[in-house]
From TrEMBL:
Record key words, sorted: Membrane, Transmembrane, Transmembrane helix
The keyword Transmembrane helix is annotated on this UniProt entry: yes
Superkingdom of this protein's organism: Bacteria
Transmembrane region(s): 7-30, 66-90, 102-134
Protein name listed in UniProt: Uncharacterized protein
Source species: Kribbella caucasensis
Lineage: Bacteria, Bacillati, Actinomycetota, Actinomycetes, Propionibacteriales
């Protein structure tokens, strides 16, 4: 396995573990709210209630909203999907652009600074690995081009 593929596999593994861990932790901490969604039906997660006259939300409805945005509406699902995509592309030998790594690293640093303590900073490692893999791919392409020019 070449180094770029190995780096991308590590990056994707970290993303999948972070996203899955986030959703699993929510399922343990807020299992009552999640079970309530199942009992009340599909639209119970964030019900669309149009309140007239500026009525205030109840504590229960705010907790329900927080549970949704901390769970299925959070970064966990897209992070798992990005990790799976990166794993798939690495298996096919397709380089993930460095811009994806820079975006992921920046997002994770910002999230880590705003939400301390959190495992957001671990996502920065994934971003750095994607950048490293993209740069090593660029270097190997440049070396191949030089070899072709010399031949």
């Amino acid at each position: 396995m070449n180094s770029g593929k190995r780096l991308l596999r590590w990056a994707s593994g970290i993303m999948i573990v972070l996203g899955t861990g986030h959703l699993s932790l929510l399922a343990l901490v807020a299992r009552g709210d999640v079970a309530g969604w199942v009992d009340r039906g599909m639209w119970a997660a964030v019900p669309l209630v149009l309140t007239g006259g500026g009525a205030d939300q109840t504590v229960e409805s705010l907790q329900n909203d927080v549970t949704f945005w901390a769970g299925p509406g959070s970064f966990g699902v897209p992070l798992i999907l990005l990790g799976c995509l990166t794993w798939h592309l690495a298996g096919r030998g397709v380089a993930v652009p460095a811009g994806i790594g820079w975006g992921l690293a920046t997002w994770c640093v910002l999230g880590g600074v705003l939400l301390v303590p959190s495992p957001f900073f671990a996502g920065t490692v994934s971003g750095a690995l994607i950048i490293w893999a993209a740069r090593s791919e660029d270097r190997s392409e440049a070396a191949r081009d030089r070899e072709i020019d010399l031949a």
